[in-house]
Amino acid sequence: MPSPTPAQAAEATLVLGLPVEVLALVVASFGLFASLGALVWQFTKHVLDGGRVKVYLNAGVWEPSFALRINRSGRFALRPDDDTAATFRDNFEVAQLVIENPGRTAVTVYSPGLAIGGAGAKDHSLTPRTFELPEGFGADRPSTANVVRLEPYDRVSFLFDYWSVVPGLLEKASSRGITVRGFVSVAGRTNRPQKSSWRKRWRIPQGAYTAIVGSPRIAPFTVLWRKLWRDTPEKDDIRDEERFRVTPGMTKYLLERAMRKFDAAPDRDTFMDVLEAEARKMGDEYAVIHTGVFEGYRSLERLSEHLGPWNWVLGKEPAVERLEAATPAEAQPGAAVEDAPPSTPPSRRAARAQRAD
Fold this sequence. Notes:
By secondary structure, the chain is α+β, with helices and mostly antiparallel strands.
């Protein structure tokens, strides 16, 4: 039998018009790409099914027992036309840290807080005081736990009193101020905490004292009330249950009644005496208010260029009956006496005699 020619041998090795070697290379390439695709899918599925969280940081205003309003844009800004965000109200500007679990596996998060940049040579993190809200705030009711278990598609939020630490951080910062981001650690994930968006990080400049756009003036009432509310113990923290004690919820009325007795800011000791007198009228002989007043007057001094009038109390007109505010050099403890008899006006005859002289 005659052997095939080279041309006949080449035609015999063609499959679908292609050489067998080329066809084998194409099939092997498809297999490689399929294997890579399966590997990428398995990695993606592992990431999606594993413990992962999303972190958001929002600015908000909390008026205890009444309202909590949050700017969910993630920006360091509050609307000036929002009455709850007004700087003459009994409210706190807060940072809301929101942590969501978008995966299909439960995850444990711990040590929520704020990541601070620009305050010192090295960036660091801290956890300011967290606020606990009563029942009735729904999904926005924050947690105060340090470790939280999140089920799939679950979320948790925290409320931070960040203005209690920002002034101290700005003292250590450069002229550009500081940056703030939310962070939380995830158990079993990595040693690095998960942070909120770098693009939406808060930039707090030097001299800042509010997140309200336009930096409106702040009432002395608001400055003092925030310090008193923080430092006044709750009823559960008082061991002597038989005695009546002023609690944080009562400081609003105590402070308002005391401030309306002055036309201008009195010195600290005089104001302390008046506050204690008002507390005794309410039934508390030994009100725990000294630390709050001390810290409040320090804040008044720091914010002196941004304060509104002393009688700007809760946005209302000042009362008619007040005490004269003495200067620090003239004021003496107990100088404000509410029950002092009124002075007797001069008679018309005495006035005419004085004019004749």
